[in-house]
Amino acid sequence: MATKISGLTPLHQTTLLKSDQHKESSFLTGLGRGSYSLSPFGTEMGMGYGCFPISHASRLFPIVFELLCISLLREQYQNSCRASVLAIKYLEFDGAESSSHVDGDWTTLSWTPPLPGCYKMSIACHFTPNSDKVGIGVIIRDHTSLVAAAAGFVLASSKDRLNSFAYAVFSAMQFAYETGFRCNIGVEVPSRELFNLLNFDSPCLAPCGVQIDDISAWLPFSTNVSFSFISIVCNKAAQDLATKAASSNLDCVWLEECPPCIQSFV
Q1: In this protein, which residues make up the domain named RNase H type-1 (predicted)?
Q2: Is 256 left (phi over 0), alpha (psi -120 to 50) or beta?
Q3: Is the pLDDT of residue 264 over 50?
Q4: Which tens digit of pLDDT belongs to each residue from 58-102?
Q5: What is the DSSP letter of 259?
Q6: Residues forming a β-bridge with 100
Q7: Where are the domains of the chain?
Q8: Greatest CA separation found in the chain?
Q9: Which of 13, 88, 118, 142 meets the CB 3.0–4.6 Å disulfide criterion with 114?
Q10: Distance, CA of 164 to CA of 155 (rounded, Å)
């Protein structure tokens, strides 16, 4: 706002006019973020800190938005690629993992015997396409890799393979109890997902939670029982026994002897 004072020369009036304009522009500039501001020369400077033109910001917004979209698409593509690789590995081995995860690396391992005085019970399932039966193979070995007991039998197949794995482990626990192996036994589970569920406290809220709780119900009848995951690569003997059981449709048990069909694997 210009202020005129009578009695002043034109030069003094011009000086006061410039001073008032400067105060007005400084006040508008100090309104803060989000306000329009004027420069000392009376030109509009735009939004923000009073030093960035609106026309420049309107040109930058589409560029920033496009870069953000490209970044999100790249991240989504990388995630989908990783998911595809895992799905292919899963399907290649009939729904069961084929390698063991140790210290963050995927490493192919062979079966290893337990410590002296302990036993390992390996469990495997063989799924036949278009069949309502699943073959189960169970092998109990000591620290010298000697087969102490083995069983091959068939069970009714379930639409959810996780249920079939759970039924197989439950039947194997019953087999170990009935044959006298009730302490210092490591149960090798053929499904990583089932192994993870067995590590949770009861009750299990998964779709196969009833079977998980049934498996846990055997634990009070045995001492020092542990669960671990075993892949197909490390479980060829039990896997072959399960395949033979599925093809013969018979239930067989061997005590203190090795089944002839798996002698080449043990």
Answers
A1: 130-245
A2: left
A3: yes
A4: 677 777 777 888 888 777 766 665 665 555 444 444 444 443 333
A5: -
A6: 107
A7: 10-52, 106-262
A8: 126
A9: 118
A10: 8
At residue 64's C-alpha, the angle toward residues 63 and 68, to 5°, is 115
Q: What three-state secondary structure class fits 176?
A: helix
CB neighbours of residue 236 within 10 Å: 17
Query: In terms of C-beta density within 10 A (0-12 exposed, 13-18 middle, 19 or more buried), how is residue 3 classed?
Result: exposed
Q: How many CA atoms lie within 13 A of 4 on its CB side?
A: 2
Query: Could you give the CA distance from residue 263 to residue 112 in angstroms, rounded to a whole number?
Result: 16
The pLDDT of residue 43 is: 45
DSSP letters, 202-230, are SSP-STTHHHHHHHHTTGGGSEEEEEEE-
Give Cα 110 distance to the centre of its chain. Answer: 24
* Distance in Å from the first CA to the final CA of the chain: 101
Q: What is the dihedral of CA 83, 85, 88, 93, to 10 degrees?
A: -110
Phi, psi dihedrals of residue 151, rounded to the nearest 5°: -150, 145
Beta bridge partners of 149: 140, 255
Which tokens in the block code for residue 256? 């203190």
Please state, as a whole number, how many other Cβ atoms lie within 10 Å of the Cβ of residue 211. 23
Question: Under CATH, what is the fold of the domain 106-262?
Answer: Nucleotidyltransferase; domain 5 (3.30.420)
